[in-house]
Write a structure and sequence with these properties.
The protein has helices spanning 36-40, 83-89, and strands spanning 11-14, 17-18, 26-28, 31-35, 46-50, 53-58, 61-66, 80-82, 93-97, 102-106. The chain is mainly beta.
Length: 161
């Protein structure tokens, strides 16, 4: 007989897509802990060490996590960290739904770039004439006589034997 799991699996969703991993995320004492690989590496620009701390950067933000020893990147799938405060310090939106056991992580929306305002002090290029040739007229064909009706059968000479 197959026994159901005592606690359902915790689902981590990044930008609307479920993040799959062989090392699942857990809730420990009210905090969601997850391995560095793939949850943190999916959003981090760089991950490095500074003394006994793991430094995670994303854009102009960074987070420092105290860690016991320098862990090789191959072991990041077994290195668990509290994921929600880490993601919030990197500028991401994090929401946890305890009924569905679902942690939603959303990256910030893209920044809308506005055009540079007009500056009269900046020299502008003078207007230039654009050369567009005039189209050459095509002579119309001259037809004389009575036009033949369309779809008239053409006489074909048959081969003689």
């Amino acid at each position: 007989m197959i026994f159901p799991l005592l606690t359902p699996a915790l689902v981590v969703v990044l930008n609307g897509t479920i993040v799959r991993s062989y090392s699942p995320a857990y809730v420990v004492r009210g905090h969601v802990v997850a391995p560095l690989e793939p949850y943190v590496t999916a959003v981090a620009a760089t991950i490095g060490y500074s003394g006994s701390q793991l430094v995670v950067t994303r854009g102009d933000r960074f987070a420092q996590i105290p860690i016991a020893a320098n862990t090789a990147p191959a072991q990041w799938a077994q290195t668990y960290v509290e994921i929600a405060p880490l993601m919030r310090s990197l500028g991401l939106r994090v929401a946890y739904d305890p009924q569905q056991r679902r942690l939603e992580i959303d990256t910030a929306a893209a920044v809308v770039v506005t055009p540079t305002p007009f500056n009269a002090a900046v020299p502008s290029a003078p207007p230039a004439d654009v050369f567009t040739p005039s189209p050459v007229s095509t002579p119309r064909p001259q037809v004389s006589g009575k036009p033949a009706p369309r779809r008239t059968p053409l006489p074909v000479k048959c081969c003689t034997r």
